[in-house]
Amino acid sequence: MTSPYPESPRGDHVDVYTDEHGQTVPVPDPYRWLEEPDSAQTRAWVTAQNAVTDAYLDTLPARSAYRERLTALWNYPREGVPWTRGGRYFRFSNPGLLNQPLLEVAASPRGPWRPVLDLNTLSADGTASLIGASVSRDGGRVAYGVQQGGSDWITWHVRDVASGQDEPHAVEWSKFSGAAWTPDGAGFYYGAYDAPQEGAALTGANRAQRLMFHRTGTPQTQDTLVIARPDEPDWGFQGSVTEDGAYLVVHVWKGTDPKNLLWVRPLDSQEPFTELVTEFRASYQLIGNDGPLLYVRTDEDAPRGRVLAWNVQTGEKREVIPEGPDVLEVVALVPGGLLAVTLHDASHRLTLHDRAGVVVREVPLPGLGSVTELNARQDDPEVFFGFMSFLTPGTAQRLLLPDTTPEALSTPALDFDASAYEVTQEFTTSRDGTRIPMFIVARRGLERDGTNPTLLYGYGGFNVSLTPSFSVGRLAWLERGGVVVVATLRGGGEYGEEWHQAGTLKRKQNVFDDFVACAEHLIQSGVTSSAHLGIQGGSNGGLLVGAAMTQRPELFGAVIAQVGVMDMLRYQHFTIGWAWASDYGRSDNPEMFRTLFAYSPLHNLKGGAAYPATLITTGDHDDRVVPAHSYKFAAQLQHVQTAGAPTLIRIETRGGHGAGKPTSLVIAEAADIWAFLEARLTTAAGG
Question: Which of 172, 175, 664, 686 has the greatest number of CB atoms lying within 10 Å of its CB?
């Protein structure tokens, strides 16, 4: 029988690995050629796959309906959380359907606002995106980072706030970095890499980051080297300057493990740094300082977090806020106190403490949801933070300390009746007895008859917490009778570092077991059934759904795997992939090979199996999780699929890993995903 999919030639490449017993294990890699993203063969394959996918999606009646409804829903003002510099207020905003947000300035947090930066003018298709904006202390200049086509590479520019004009010199080949201004506005610190070899910008490994200082008005060739450690090529450096301008504090990171070093020296000094933390044993995050006293949030001897006051001159440290029953996620220094965001069963609380750590009061939040941003200064009682829930979009909240309650700066005018829906939290038990929470978002009075089309979403990795978040795309799904479930899985940060570690390395299977337990709970409780249950995840979440569908293909009716890590034997060879080894381990470590091989989605697609309908999405400019993961997984899945269910890959040729994706492309992709799910999970398709 002729395959409905484009030809994916199978080569004879074989890699040989060694396991913990010293045994060699040959592993075929027939689609190794798809690791070359710019080869003529790969590009032809991408074009052919997109043609097949688009033809299928175009047959779905709901595709155009979703595009129309999502466009209408997305067209509402999104006003970001303000922050202050030099007596001015800055924020990001989008009046509706702009591909990229505007950076705006005002003399008051309520405006009127004036645009400072509009990246929509830099590219016709909106794929030039803003990755960061750091405003100088006097509010006069902004260093802003631009990414092109979804790549992680950053080019920094400096713009004069008053005139809107850019300085002539840009800073290139920065990555995984912010910009930290000196108090006098003379320049900023940033992280840089060597320029990649020709043709390797999107695939070459990123190692040996340096901390540099760029003096405004001068070319990058004159930038000053602050830190380089060629003897430790896996180290990265994030510099920050204390609010009083006294110290340069360097956060030294190594991969994605939250453990870091902490170095400090007077800003005007060229002497060696004082190394406050010399081993990667825990996380240490600078909160602020009172002279030589640094306030630091750490999970050292406290998996859920605590706050220390650390004297950089004497080395003495004392505990200010002890570890509590909930995760201490974010802390800000404010006049006379500390403002703390904690995580209770995956939703946020906000508490004011005095400088001795004693609780002054709990700050009321609008409901069950998430604090998305906390902008505070240690000498300013005016605090701004963002708040969102599953059913309400992010709103900027103003809090005047110490006694007032938060007030919303605006109320988004959204064409959606949130009162018709409800959010509940339920718990299930994983294979080993661990209690696993999940949020269920559905129409009020949902009938649990097993027929509701339901999407289960998860991540479970890298200490990332999934808290209540607002998604315009999910609203259209809810309106058409769908249910959304967000699972709280081990590997994340919702219950602290122990919860994170329980989903890493040889314990990674716990994450998949937790996800399957959530799926089984939804079926057993009557929310849905296998035929009506879809799963979705992106990046590490793409790995999650890839592992779930290969281990339990009969449990799901549809799978959405987005920019997933699918080849667990070779992920470390591309761009920043080596940095994920703290969560995954590496296949060239004999102690980890069998574990990775046992769940690697690519290597566990078996001939003769009936896999659920699958839509894989990626971007050909993704240099975080290179598209070869998705390409090879799609080719192998099409090769072995026996169920007759569609096995499709949607490749965005103007996008990357996801950050900064233009609104138009976000809407188009979301419409395709929801239309695909509706086609597969409604009563007719599921029957």
Answer: 175
DSSP string, 218-252: S-GGGPEEEE--TT-TTEEEEEEE-TTS-EEEEEE
* Helix ranges (DSSP H) in 480-575: 497-501, 509-524, 540-551
The catalytically annotated residue of 539, 582, 587, 600 is 539
Q: Which of 90, 95, 146 is nearest to 123 (CA)?
A: 146
Residue type present at position 450:
G
Which is the catalytic residue, given 500, 603, 621, 657?
657
pLDDT tens digit sequence for 113-143: 999 999 888 776 767 788 889 999 999 999 9
Give catalytic status of residue 622 as yes or no: yes
pLDDT digits (tens, 9 = 90+) for 317-365: 999 999 999 999 999 999 999 999 999 999 999 999 999 999 999 999 9
Q: How far apart are the first and last CA of the chain?
A: 26
Residue with tokens 């979804």: 150
pTM (2 d.p.): 0.90
The number of helix segments (H) and strand segments (E) in the chain equals 11, 39
Length of the chain: 687
pLDDT surpasses 50 at 1: no
CA 289 to chain centroid: 29
Q: Is 419 an active-site residue? A: no
How far apart CA 286 and CA 206 sit, in angstroms, is: 26
Beta pairing, strands 483-487 & 454-457? parallel
Token pair of 380 as six digits: 């300013």
CA 483-486-488 angle, to 5 degrees, is 155
Q: Angle 14-17-21 (CA atoms, 0-180°, nearest 5)?
A: 145
Query: 516 in helix, strand or coil?
Result: helix
Residue 657 annotated among the catalytic residues of the structure: yes
Identify the residue whose tokens are 């989903």: 503
Cis omega (within 30 of 0) for bond into 112: yes
User: Which structure tokens are listed for 553?
Assistant: 């293909």
